[in-house]
Amino acid sequence: MENIGATRARGITISGIAARPLDRLGLITLLSSIYFFQIWGLTMGGTPLPPALHGVFMGMSVAGIVHPRLWGVLLINAFAWSATYLLNSPVASNNQTTAFAFSLVVLGAALMVRPSGEADRDRFFHRVASAGRLILPAMYFFGIYHKINIDFLDPAVSCAVVLYKALFNGIGLGNWSFGQYGAIYATFIIEGIAMIALFIPRLKTIGILIGVPFHIIIGFTGYAYYKDFSTIVLVLYALFLPKEVFTNALDAATRWAGSQERALKFGRWALILFVIAYVAAMGALLDPVRFIPDDRSFMPFFALYALGFYAFLILFMPRDGGAKQGYRAGWLLIIPMLYFANGWSPYLGLKTESSVAMFSNLHTEGGETNHLFHGVLPFGAGYQEALVTPVASNSPGFDARFVAPGYDLVRYELDRMLATTPGLEVMVQTEAGVVSTASPGWANTYLAHGLVAQKFLTFKPVDWARPKVCSH
């Protein structure tokens, strides 16, 4: 009894709130909590859930940041996000689709392991990692494949150059030709190395140390709020880490602090101070709305955890990649396979949004393509062939976004807008002249489809400018 009392007094107990060493599941809980904190805030008011519930999930995510061993936070976020994503579908965001796939893996792993205590932590992580880590090479495959088009390779319009300029215009290197071409071809090289090296034990460390900074740099561009995407990718990278990383880190922290007890307390307080600093910097106590992250204010906090994670890898990742894990995904393999299949959507004549084609300059619509290999395959669907040209509407917001020279819409996408926006009426240019979508002869193709298509299909506006200027 004396030993137990002394241990409790030191703050290292078996209780749920005591400071304990970070393990692989703890790191996944920590990083995913940071991701979900951002995404619940960024989507507030944009999902069927009431804003107050988003606030509850943000608060719960803070608990997962301060106490990463609360793996129940990971499960709740995964369940809530999966349900929200399905309710809000079709979703155009690629990072949200990636997070949805990861969340399904977490839920599937929980069904297989049915974790009930500390003893199940490693088994649960193993199941999550077995399937979840396969999402990353699937993402990288299409991150490369979609970009094999003439416009991504053209520095005048390439999305790689857009991001490069966002980083280097401030120091006068934005128009440096070597840097622009370097950004284009480095994208293929880095993503290719990472995709392959992660699955070769002796090269895994190299793949991680090359791939992670690529996504950290993207988060710093400021061109778009890329920090949520970068964070979910860090979560996927963490699934590749062996146990040795954490034992190495704990040993080093213990030597530095003088004892394991002190090292664990420092770690706990560092996480608490991270949250306190965010609340103070945002002024969230004065106005709860400020709790929602925005690009500029979140930048230093992104730098802190992203660069901290990278330093953790540099210092403690074993150079031989660590012990072999023997991962077996089982039926959970279905989830990364579906994620991979989703990436083929543009070439199957299906959706062009949320198909891992972001910032790729890819164009496959209207029977044309800029891809160097192929456009819509011969056996693909015909959605991308049916295009319409909006010329006016009764909505100034619609006109501002979609009525412009050189722009068309996929007919199905226009019909989706009409079906989901009561009162919207659009004048469309056809071969027979201008037609109103409110006329009796206009058949709504969206309403003619079933629930699966309505929840899956979503298309970007078709930009006929050539070369094709970078868009999301």
Descriptive account of the structure:
This protein is mainly alpha-helical. The protein has a domain at 16-133 and 198-339. 55% of the residues lie in helices and 5% in strands. It contains 18 helices and 5 strands. The chain has helices spanning 2-10, 24-42, 51-66, 71-88, 94-113, 121-132, 135-145, 159-168, 177-197, 204-220, 227-238, 243-257, 260-282, 295-316, 334-343, 396-402, 411-420, 451-456; strands at 387-393, 407-410, 426-430, 433-436, 462-463. Strands 4-3-1-2-5 form a 5-stranded antiparallel beta sheet. Strand 3 (426-430) and strand 4 form a beta hairpin. The protein is globular and about 80 Å long. The model is unreliable at 1-15 (pLDDT under 50).
Write a brief structural summary.
The protein is mainly alpha-helical.
